Amino acid sequence: MSGQQIRAGDWLMLSFPSANRDEAVFDDPFVFRPDRKPNPHLAFGYGAHVCLGQHLARMEMRIFFEEFFDRIEALELSGTPRRTISTFVGGVKSLPIRFAAA
Ligand code: HEM
User: Fold this and answer.
1) Whose CA is nearest to atom 26 of ligand 1?
2) Ligand 1: residues whose CB is within 6 Å?
3) Which H or E element spans position 64?
């Protein structure tokens, strides 16, 4: 824990979004770069309680993007993205877009 002393009875807060922006782990930690390799993010947790559905979730996202990008010709932001307000599992809450169908 980076030399931090944790005493019995101390309260801790687990924050996956913070871990995913750890400057000791990621270059440009605040930049969304889906092509990072390796990409040791903790969006699905870690250790004994790592997400049991992560393979299904990855497959759903892959198939969604494959089908989506097959059907559109152009895509642009049409508003301000909003994120979930969470210290635990973060993500995009809404992402307004304008697109042209293929
Ligand atoms: C993008 C989608 C998903 C994200 C970001 C996500 C994220 C997470 C995270 C961070 C944890 C760890 C929680 C902790 O440390 O206590 C977790 C646990 C878990 N997830 Fe997911 N999850 C996703 C999708 C799914 C799906 C689709 C399923 C089931 C079909 C699922 C089932 C579970 C279960 C059962 C656990 C508890 C594992 C345990 O405590 O042993 N998740 N998930």
Assistant:
1) 53
2) 16, 43-45, 49, 51-53, 56-57, 89
3) helix 54-71
Statement: the pTM of the whole predicted model exceeds 0.90: no
CA distances from 89 to 8, 17, 50, 79, 82 (A): 26, 7, 12, 23, 15
Structure tokens at 24: 């000791």
**62-96 pLDDT tens trace:** 999 999 999 999 999 999 999 998 888 888 999 99
Residue with CA closest to ligand 1 atom 42: 53
